[in-house]
TrEMBL record:
SUPFAM superfamilies: GAF domain-like (SSF55781), PP2C-like (SSF81606), PYP-like sensor domain (PAS domain) (SSF55785). The lineage of its organism: Bacteria, Bacillati, Actinomycetota, Actinomycetes, Streptosporangiales. Coiled coil: none annotated. The keyword Hydrolase applies. This is SpoIIE family protein phosphatase.
Amino acid sequence: MSAETSVPRPREPGLDISDSDLFRGVMSEAPFAFAFFDPDGRFVRVNSTFTELTGHPVELHLDRQPAELLPADLTTLIDAALRRIADEALPITDQRIRTRAENGDSRHWTVSFFPLHGDDGVIGTALFGVDVTERQLNEEMLERSEERYRSLVESQQQLVWISSPSGSVAEDAPQWRAITGQGLEEYLAHGWLDAVHPDDRPGTEEAWREALRGRTMFEWSYRVRTRASGYRHFEVRAVPIVRHGRVVEWVGANTDVTPQREAEEMRGRLTDQLGAAALRTARLQGATAQLAEALTVEQVVQVIIDVGRTALAADHSSVALLDPDRATLKVINSGGTPDAPGEDIDLAHPNVMTMAVNSRRPVFAESPDSLRAQLVDAGADEGRISGFLAQTDERAWVGLPLLAAGRALGALRFSFTRTQKISQEDGVFLEALAGQCALAVERATLFEREHKTAETLQRSLLPERLPVVRGMTLAYRFRSGSRHVQVGGDWYDAFVLQDGRVAAVVGDVMGKGVKAAAGMGRIRNAMRALALTNPPPAAVLTGLDRVFEATEEEEQVTTLAYMVVEPGTGEGTLALAGHPPPLLVSPQGVGLLHETEPGTPLGWATSRKQFRFCVPPGHTAVLYSDGLVENRKRGLDAGLRELSSVVAEAPPEVLSSPNMLLDFLVDHMLSGYEQDDDVTVLAVHVPPATKSD
């Protein structure tokens, strides 16, 4: 919606004249009467000043027609104005009305109507009324003292004057002198220009001389000094009176447009205030959205620095967190805190952050003198203050406490290389920003603590190390994909069987959290027990099916790949339970996926099968979870094809080292994708035979 009266402007986000809080906050105490009508002529909003026109409370006006509340003369004026605006979409200004108060006193008002434009035309009409009772009384006194101008003033509200062809005063203008306070001799000697505001006089005088030279109409506006030493706005129009081709005199009329100018200025100030409020609201909403996405303290600090630079135009921004046990602030990004003696600041050391934390209130220092005074009051050494101010380019500072449920978490510091006037509205915005930052810091601190605990728990369920076996090299990689604190269900294991062969397994319990971790622990332990008792893969999977049916919920999905390999020769067997096939990598960089039945997840009624699987000397078998090959942008089939092709890019030294090979595969498979699942990879490498062998 545009707040202009004649030219529509684009809608400003966040502004809505129907917002009751905004209306009450900005308009309720306005010194002018205000009303807003919908296209049907019903009241939508009025302020308390408007009720002086009607004598009715604010709430009685809403959704009513003027005729239901107002006297006939006032209703006629408003209805006519609303109809005219609906037809012409142009403002109507300076409508005079008179009302009578309950005590019988008459009040005089100047009323103006302004259309509000929307995308489809006029969407409503705003009424502005100014109480001009005092001016009206003055005008009536002037009318009584200047009878010969009464008719002209009453009908046109203009001051008429006459000048000679050269522009000098030709005769007295009592009405003009009554307003300006000029004496007759002064007016005849210096004329009307002597009462024009000094800033407006050069332009006015030049325009007047140009009109005299060209004998053209003179139209101008300027401020005029009044008898009371104030200034009022006038518009002037003067025309030459020509007889027989010669200018015989100039006749001018001045119109007092002060009420219109005041209304325009008020409307401009209101528009500026609404625009500034909308901008602050948008900036706060943007900062809140960014902070909501930040999970770690480091990310929160980066958002705060960005907001300080973009929303506040701050030259330096910093964040410090409170260590309550040591009574210190630990600065997270010390580069933004030049007045800090180090990364840890004792709360007894006065600066804007410690003062904010100690007082639980914002600290605003708009200039070096203001900062000096506040630091001295806080007990800072004047020599240290002078030294800091001498070596810094900062000239204004803001310190904001980070408070959560009344508990101090730390402080924010913003500084500027110029003095900074901080208005009450700016202060409200900064406090709201600090509140959002405090919530984000508290959430990030909790996340980091719980995430670390979750990772520790998950890793505790996995083997600390793999067995060292002659004739075989084992390697693994595990990369958590959870951005949250929940534990994943990926797992791996490798151990030596009683006959000297090595069992290797990678499994995936679908889901996150303690439930998935507990299921992973049960299946891993059961698989070890079954493998050590009866190691063939088909027998182990059959036993796991029985364990799964007895211990796990029916909707739980668990997959795994299990293989048994002979060290040295690489001969072995393989069984899959709904898991992706292993990858066999040759010394020449050829990657082949084992072509075998994938089987069904654990717990599904099926006859388990095992297949011969050989890892020839010099080759490497890779077991992996689906997080390596599948994500939101890449399907499983495409991921498997890409996995085989990536092997061909590996250099020879990578192919001969299982640890380097796993790093190569993980980095290349995740490159360009956002990791959204755990990635578990286990390599079984059989070294090439040597001459001694």
